[in-house]
Amino acid sequence: MKIKALLLGAIAGTAMAPMAFAERGSDGNVSIIYWQAPSILNPFLSGGTKDVESASLVIEPLARYDQDGNMVPFLASEIPTVENGGVSEDLTSITWKIAPGITWSDGTPFTSSDVKFTADYCMHPEGGCAQVTKFEGVTSVEAVDDLTVKVTFDAPTPFPYGPFVGGESPIIQAAQFANCMGAKAPECTTENFNPIGTGPFVVTEFKPNDVITMKANENYRDPAKPAFATLTFKGGGDATAAGRAVMETGEFDYAWNLQLAPEVIQQMQEGGKGTPVAGFGPLVERIMMNQTNPSPDLPEGERSTAKHPHPFLTDPAVYKAMSLAIDRPLLVEIGYGQAGQVTCNWVPAPAAVNSDTFSCDKQDIEGAKKLLDDAGIVDTDGDGVREKDGVPLKIVYQTSTNAVRQDFQALVKEWWSQIGIESELRNLNASVFFGGDPGSPDTFQKFYADVEMYANTFNGTDPQSYLGNGLCDKAPKPESQWQGENISRFCNADYDKLHAQLAETAGAEERAKIARQLNDIMVENGGMIPLVHRGRLSAHANTLGGVILNVWDSELWNAADWYRKTGS
User: Fold this and answer.
1) Residue 343 lies in a domain
2) Number of domain units in the chain
């Protein structure tokens, strides 16, 4: 099957597969492989996709997004709206009704107190919550009764579905995390590695950056689910090995994020053991531009912080020249084929928010040189490297270890050298790079490099919370345990003001217009260089039923519905 056909099929939507099991635990073990290994099972302490998605097997939100981007209730009994009375007429509050009878995996009742606690946990000023943008504008979360929770905002909020919706904003148990508030949060190893949840599986053993073993949750709300008695979640290795393990050897049932060349996927599928599944959501491969100085000559607490602006990456001539020098169509061709598209935008999907302001589908080396020449950024000593105010344009360019990304690095380094910018390439183990460990110097949040390349996306179809990652106060810093999703340390007063306007704006068309404007401010002012709009490509064993790829939430969103096919 061609990758393009897979993508088109996924975009069109897939009907829910019929369930072929009737007894919990009747189908033995299911095995999942993510070549980026989880390092924690608490999404509030890591923005890494592999951590968020592995945790989604255990802890859940009040609502999720389905495969078509529609919001659906999970722990809630319904989605609150103005029409059903769940959202106030003045749009300043949302009231969630929890479905009755839900218990934690330890058998205790799931109540509104747990929801309130989760908000207090993430919003704690000393906690460094990775998902704090979900709670932007929240003034209070009140447990009205055991099954009712009310969220109040500081202004009319037409899209009040940031808190507790999607895999990035699940509910944690108040009783388990009671002693983990604020600065103590990263120290709670037992809680962060073995969260008590409401999901279909329970952690039996967690080995960070290696393997997680789980068993069926005996107290899961559907007595017939999950079909699998145990689950093995293997992390590490590389995308090639993961793809082969499903499609060629059949050692695993599900492989995530097969960031491989199209012909490699085609060859693997010929192994006959598995099937690739793909779809376009808002996933973008980009180069983040550090707006601050990561020099090791600075004190440890001041590197990559607002105290020290970057000596040249904030200059429009520099970052625009760097973007002009890149041949994006070639990157798409060698890296993703039909599973990739050229993009100039941070937020290319849904289509309504995809800006048409920029054109970046043609490389222009000479144009890039002229930009730098006109700005007086020239090579004064003949070593091939330009200088700005006496500072050579020498950068550290880091990313995670991955064959496609290393190919990209090599090409981009060469293109940048042609315009007088020297790059030192650095690649890091993905489990460490995306791990969120505040003590590690190698995380993408700490950003001890000049530029770094990775992909990111968001849950759902409304980008308000995601665009909140560009707000000045969301930059990772020592005081926030290096958590925060404003990775480039971008800070623009017009951006902050416009985002506040988005939070108060009703109407899909007007919201989309503001979202496009925010995208343009970020790109125009050098917060990042978008490269490729990527399709999410994974694979499942031919014997694994119930899989529905979801590009709007966790890929493992419906693991409770997976089952073993018979006669395959």
Assistant:
1) yes
2) 1
